[in-house]
Write a structure and sequence with these properties.
Number of strands: 12
Largest sheet: 6 strands, mixed
Bound molecules: 2'-monophosphoadenosine-5'-diphosphate
Strand order of the largest sheet: 2-1-3-5-6-4
Helix content: 25-40%
CATH superfamily of the largest domain: NAD(P)-binding Rossmann-like Domain
CATH topology of the largest domain: Rossmann fold
Distance between the termini: 35 Å
Shape: globular
CATH architecture of the largest domain: 3-Layer(aba) Sandwich
Structural class: alpha/beta
Length: 279
Amino acid sequence: MIKACVIGWPISHSRSPLIHGYWLRLHGIDGSYTRKPVEPAQLQDFIRSLPTQGLAGCNVTIPHKEAVHALVKPADATTERLGAVNTVFLRDSEVMGTNTDGEGYVNNLRQAVPGFTMKDQRAMVLGAGGASLAVVNVLLEQGAAEVVVANRTVERADDLRRRFGTRVVPLPWEHIETHLPETALLVNTTSLGMTGQADLVLDLSRLPVDAVVSDIVYTPLRTRFLETAARRGNPVVEGLGMLLHQAVRGFSLWFGVVPQVTPELHDLVARDIDPGYQR
Ligand code: ATR
């Protein structure tokens, strides 16, 4: 029996057990994937004792992603650059950490808009927090000519430029609308639009109608921001797919099978978020 889990504090809302449980059943694997609340004071002990607990690894969510980075061996350059870990696994009994948020974002984009490429294009990313970091990094890795980062607190966007270089262009929040004409991909990584928060309201009239608009918020499944973009004809990409795609590599590292993000999996998780969901 291979065991994995997701850790966070709190952890009760995590949909990861639903995703990994679906794949375990589909592939007939003798494995388990559970939620484990781990408080910050216990984090170091938990990570160090993974091998002796009989765990193959874990996912890491809020608020532990940065702290875990300091407790494990980063498995690749992207993870080192991000300073945050969402997936922990064992290699020759050593506790390793990697970050699959960026590939989750870009593989969802690829699946939702086949043929779209970031190469030599301009993106605008709204927000400059932890989620933004992973998205900005992967867009640069994909060859974006420029990633404009608009943030309410513009100093955090300046930090991203210092970290990633001059292809990152910080933008004060109030200048978003004037910079829309050159944008091929517009991404919301802020918490605006999440259930219980204010909506992200922008005048999109200057955005090209073929620009892809995406949101990493997935509660609700389709935010008002995406709804507005879809109504004017822009291709839109919902946030749930990023959650599904970021789970792929962890599953394959722990359980030895590369799983697929299927429409059936999407609908299973979508119905958990919104019981009235219909494709
Ligand atoms: P995460 O790790 O999910 O990215 P975070 O680091 O707390 O979370 O970042 C939240 C992002 O949402 C930030 O870019 C934040 O802007 P600030 O850096 O100015 O705080 C953005 N955000 C949250 N509430 C916002 C609001 N009401 N208006 C504009 N941006 C907001």
